[in-house]
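Protocol check, entry for the methods section draft. Step 1: assemble the input record (protein sequence plus ligand SMILES). Step 2: submit for complex structure prediction. Step 3: store the structure tokens unaltered in the notebook. Ligand used here: S-adenosylmethionine. Step 1 record:
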Amino acid sequence: MNQQSLWDTFYTIQAWQKETLDLPQICANKRILELGCGNGKTLKAILSQDPQAVLAIDFSGEALKRAKEMIQDLRVTFLHTNVLALPGDLGTFDVIVCYYLLNNLTPAEQTSLIASLHSLLNPEGTLLLEDYTTGDHREQTTHTLRRDFISQERIKQLLANYTLTSCAENSFSPYKQSLQQRRIIRASAIHPVSSKKYDNSG
Ligand SMILES: C[S@@+](CC[C@H](N)C(=O)[O-])C[C@H]1O[C@@H](n2cnc3c(N)ncnc32)[C@H](O)[C@@H]1O
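Step 3, stored output:
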């Protein structure tokens, strides 16, 4: 089964219920692009900041079905497509949110996606990344969904053509009476005003 079908199956069985916490407060009155929006966990947090408009993309039809059930908001446009094959007429955005998507891509796909975002982000626009990082308990489990966890070094490599404004790892135990460690990485980067053409190596 390919990754898209696996995600569809995932969303027929379960969906994330809680709203994402700690999304930086930079979305008010802005045009936002959310990549890999799933069933809307982070989208809810974006909308709570009163953005001007949000384009929310996912390749799982099941995820979008659930997101649309939960979120009916005229500011949101949902797009059912693969983030690795984005249409060329999306316009540009002030903020691009990419939460827990990169680990689902191969390293080459991660590089290609981040490169493609350069032309979608307004000068001085912000790219927000959050993902599982090395040492997260999910590394120990065999999983049919792709998992390629993101280290700090990898973030710095991926964002070499942006101005990195923050990059920090955080670990905590999400489950009571369990030694499982959740390890995440959060980064934000700004599109430099005078950016060079993106070098897609690495
Ligand atoms: C772990 S979920 C994250 C959902 C959401 N960003 C959040 O913060 O709750 C990853 C999402 O990425 C989507 N996804 C994975 N690879 C994708 C791709 N190549 N194109 C579009 N969506 C993709 C999956 O369908 C899934 O909904």
